[in-house]
């Protein structure tokens, strides 16, 4: 546990100074050929990216793609094998404490103290940064209001719902007024309503100028939250850009989803050739990529094919990933 200091200082005084205070760098995070190996396993394979201040930047990919490993290296809790990494002009391997002083971290699994009350979780965590109670008490109340948990301040953590615990974890990560917030799979396991509430809180942080770095395998979450993202698979970057630009580059405007039954899906592809721009056959459905999904459906019917179900939808990042890797994000 870090040594607690008792001097009456502001959170900014408690932080270690960095080059950013003399004038913000062009990018708050810069990675060049970043690599992480575990024995013979390459978890992160020479990736490069830069993140300007105030951006919501995403790492999109399936489980095991290297997203969480990258986040750990940014957070200074896992050393890189090779390559370079700069966080606000500092190397997290050499300047871990200084870097972490400016970071807020929301881990994949909530690690709240279940025995403490909701407000006390914030106060105790703030003391790890050496922040005085004169700052922490009003800050905790401000963050509970932000997280819509004011009425739960005196409740035990184990009495909270999953969505409430997630909001409390985010509130806790903001106690030191971080410049960068790392969110690892922030909404995994939450119901749709809880996810949307959490998204709203993150939008508000971005409006306040906080840089958001998030990993996710939810395509809708990446589209909702990210200004820009990298699509990663097996430790490599497959594509980079805004959600809209990636969809334009790698997919069509619409997608026609057809289900012919588990036995028929695998064999019907040849009968659909020539409809739309391309046909993708998955175990549970067949996808036809076309700029006009309804016209594609009419052509399917004209060929005498009768799917069990049909759906026309807009293209998504899931389709981008499928085009780049040949498999689904949830594989």
TrEMBL record:
Gene Ontology terms, MF aspect: ATP binding
> Where found, per UniProt?
Cell membrane
Pfam families from the entry? ABC_tran
Q: Tell me, in one coarse class, where this protein mainly resides.
A: membrane
What superkingdom does the record give?
Bacteria
| Stretch list, region Disordered | 1-24
InterPro entries per record = AAA+_ATPase, ABC_transporter-like_ATP-bd, ABC_transporter-like_CS, ABC_transporter_ATP-binding, P-loop_NTPase
ABC transporter domain location is 29-259
Q: Write the record's keywords in alphabetical order, separated by commas.
A: Antibiotic resistance, ATP-binding, Nucleotide-binding, Transport
- List the biased-composition ranges (Basic and acidic residues): 1-15
Membrane topology category: Peripheral membrane protein
| PANTHER family per UniProt | ABC TRANSPORTER ATP-BINDING PROTEIN (PTHR42711), ABC TRANSPORTER ATP-BINDING PROTEIN NATA (PTHR42711:SF5)
Q: Which family does it belong to?
A: Belongs to the ABC transporter superfamily.
Q: What is this protein called?
A: Lipooligosaccharide transport system ATP-binding protein
Organism this protein belongs to: Arthrobacter ginsengisoli
